[in-house]
Amino acid sequence: MINVVADVGLLCLLLTVALAIVCTRSPLSLVLLSGIYSIALCTLFVILDAVDVAFTEAAVGAGISAILFFAVIRPEDEPVTAFSWPSSRAILLGLGVGVLLLAGTLDMPMYGDHLAPAHQHLALRFLGQSFEEIGIPNVVTSVLASYRGYDTLGEVVVIFTAGVAVLILQPDNKKGPAKPGDRDRFAPELMGNPVLKTVLLRMIPLVVLFGLYVQFHGDYGPGGGFQAGVILGAGVITYGLLSSATRLKRIISDKWVTLGMALGVLVYGLVGVAGLFLGANFLDYSVLGPTQTAGQHLGILLIELGVGLTVSCTMVSLYYCFKQGES
Amino acid sequence: MTEILGSLLLLLGVLTVLVGGVGLFRFPDFFCRLHSASIVDTLGAGLVLLGMLVLSGSVVIAFKVAMIGALIFFLSPMTAHALARAALRSGMHRDKPGSGPSTGGMK
Amino acid sequence: MDSLIPALENHLPILQVIVPLLIAPFCMILGSRRLARGIMVLTAGIMLAITLGLASLTLQQPVITYDLGGWAAPWGIEYRVDMLTVFILFTINLVHMLASVFCLGRQDGNLGTAARPAFYTAWLLCIAGLNGMVVTNDAFNVFVFLEISSLATYTLISCGREPLALLSAFRYLVAGAVGATFILLSIGLLYMQTGTLNISDLSRVIAERGSDRTIILALAFFIIGVGVKCAVFPLHDWLPNAYRFAPDSVTVLLSGTATKVALYVLIRFLHDLFGADFGFAEMPLDMVLVVTAIFGLLLVPFIALRESNLKRMFAWSSVAQVSYIVMGIGLGTRLGIEAALLHLFNHAIVKTAIFMAVGIIIARTGTARIRHLGGMAHRHRFASCIMLFGGLSLIGLPGTVGFVSKWVLVTAVVDKGWWWLAIPILAGSLASAAYVWRIVEIMWTKPAVLKPEAPAARLHWVEWLPLSVLAGLALWFGLNASLITGLASSAALGLLNPGG
Amino acid sequence: MSFPGLLNYWVALILLVCGLIIVMDSRNLVKKLVGLGIFQSAVFLVFITLGKKSDGSAPILDASVSVYSNPLPHVLILTAIVVGVATTAVGLALVARIRRAYGTIDEDEIDDRPEVEPEIVP
After folding, report:
1. A83 SS3 class
2. What is the pTM of this model?
3. Whole-angstrom distance, CA of residue D58 vs CA of residue D62
4. How many Cβ pairs closer than 8 A exist between chain C and D?
5. Residue-range domains of chain A with CATH
6. Does the complex come out with an ipTM higher than 0.85?
7. What angle do CA C214, C229, C98 make, to 5 degrees?
8. Domain ranges in chain B?
9. Is A96 an interface residue toward D (CB < 8 Å)?
10. Using one digit for the tens of pLDDT, what is the confidence trace for C389-415?
11. How far apart are CA C129 and CA A157, in angstroms?
12. What does the pLDDT look like over A192-221, one tens digit per residue?
């Protein structure tokens, strides 16, 4: 009952924020609104039992996306009028499409229906047998890393591709490396503020610790390589914001970041190739250990490390690249 | 007993947040609003977390809730500080409501 | 070593994809542009070899499957190779091989030194994603690899010299992301009603349960989503500018591979997933596809005729040619698919050659404006002749490959009883003759507009070799069509009767 | 319990249309990307809703729980969210470059500029 109330309430919130976004023109307000939207969506995902997804949405929607958007928007983009209705042509088209789609939803199974076809076929085996076959309690991790491990390899490659893309797109810095005294336009208020520095610098080890916890606890609870990578990356970026990107680059240079990005994909891929050499199919972890579950455990541990490495390095690389574009 | 105590704390926390939300709308200028938002945020979230702490059955969950509480205790005032400082730096003053740079949808 | 080769044979389907996928990050680590280029061509060669290996395997065994992670089909992700797969793999890997040789001679893009190896990494990721889409038999896996190739493609396009390349890439990104999300939604709706993601399994379950409104909705979303990726006529908006502003080598690669793979996914999903009975008997899909195709092939040539930029003119022509392929798919018959496949192959070869020739001319003259090209044919004979030959093939003149596929298409149309469709096909060909003639007239008969460039740069082997191979193939398949028609027809047969 | 019924899907549908309207109607490149995010999130909502079982709990095996929601849509959406943020990152990098090249992120202002092509005198 309480779930349903929360579900409906959050749906209303989502609709309100989405409508506000349709009518808003100011980029700053848009980014803030989309952050609120993400948090609402993430809470809704918890209500709908998708804790891993909610975790990711929180890290991505409210975290990375917002940071990236803030790196791109500028005060001079703010329009004179902050609010405008969409054109009537778009509204009409949207309404038309919406009514058509509404008719298409009528055969769908109801909310929470136990007999819905989606719960019958594949899901039965994942829920019923994954513990014997893989031996970890978080079924989402089992499916993600083993049954559909190849999709996850694809996912890591997508992140890597985005990292490569942003590297290619970063403007060539012809002025040479930035001087140590350069102000960080990314977050000017963070630098040289004793309060922030005192609190946040002490937070960084905790953030890193939390990241490692999420990395290695993903088998038993929500979390895993992706979320851990985002958290670790956030910890490193916080340091960059507090001192300066130049300082951070002296500790972790661009080259190492790029290397880590590529290495993560290679780790994942080579775990798969190891299966080939041991006489099994690509990404079959069962042959990696003495027993099937031991092999699956080892394989999942390794590939999650690869995911974490690629994601965290890509985060830092994104920060460097967007930083570069500001000079 | 613990159940009643926990529920009371949760309720109190929610009410506090609600009051803060009203303050956010009713106060005249940026700094008053910030005041309402930040103090209430810390107290309200703290009360809710305390309620959850009381209600949580296991030590592990209680520990995690306590960690979240500690995090909010440190970070929430800090955020308010950063916001206030940013506002002050960009030329917003208490005696001139609504002054300062254009902030999009904000008045 | 002896034991490794038969073992490798079993793993060919996965090697086709993971070889480029894992070499790409390796390329990035090396960080050297020269090495990256060498590796890129080498990888292209290996991929073509793997395709040929797969082709020889499919001759013995019509369907090869491969369970990734060792999980049996509907639970894990499955790779599935049959004649049709091999046909498409051969097309795109052949084009990729030649395009990467061609790429060696280009100093494309305004890239910083640090970003150069990244360009080749993105190139490899793009082709890896496309190969992954072809080989997989899992609906969601299609989406994942579609996104890999798309992200890499946006990046490659944005490397173009002019700043408008950035805006074109952005517009393609938005259109492509909307299309991919439609495909994702379609997969979600299918999963909602069937509980499975494997394409063969999906088709079995749909056949058992029968269709309902949700499945119809899924079909509609799928057609729109994949239509954006194929640049089917009303959804083609991103293509002309993306092709025009992309670096020359990227245009060459994309025109022969990206839209072709999207068309393959369309064929695969319509027949293997939704089932021809559902799509063509229950739903009026044949009418929808054929009507959009008619509009595309009749209207687009007129846009091309008014185009002032050589590269974009041929990009428009690609939109028109896609319409012929869509018409073949829309017929839904065996002959229709055969015609679509033939045209797909021919267009991949011919358009790749044309864009190579265009790239060579643009690199020499420094302009792509059609009115600047007066008299160029006499200065750049080889490239201009190839362009002319390609243009004739686009029209479908007898003796060219274009004739073969259009002939089969007309046969298919008559066979289906829709003989009146032959009229738009002929009209479309005449219209394309108009824009090809315009180029010929300017390049051969008009006086030179531009001063001759300093010593006319000779053609490098990386320029004439791929061009000659493509022209040779086009000529050979045009004169001796039986081999390629045979392949296309058995691929179509394998699609429609998977058992026999 | 049949109350929410198809409500989640309908809301997802409205969000989908909202996202589409933003993408089509907006001329501001940043707003387009925000719209794209909403458009994608609507699809995420469809997937997650279809995986929900009433009175179910998160698919983390535990002796005290008997009904679990369907884990497969969660896996798919995890991947899709990551793909979405990757697209957004590439899009924003493009926007940053477009701003450097044109000094604006408004499509109308960019389209208004005449196309510069090397004009060569014969």
Report:
1. strand
2. 0.93
3. 10
4. 90
5. 1-106 (1.20.120.1200), 131-327 (no CATH)
6. yes
7. 145
8. 2-89
9. no
10. 999 998 888 888 888 889 999 999 998
11. 10
12. 677 888 888 888 998 999 999 999 888 888
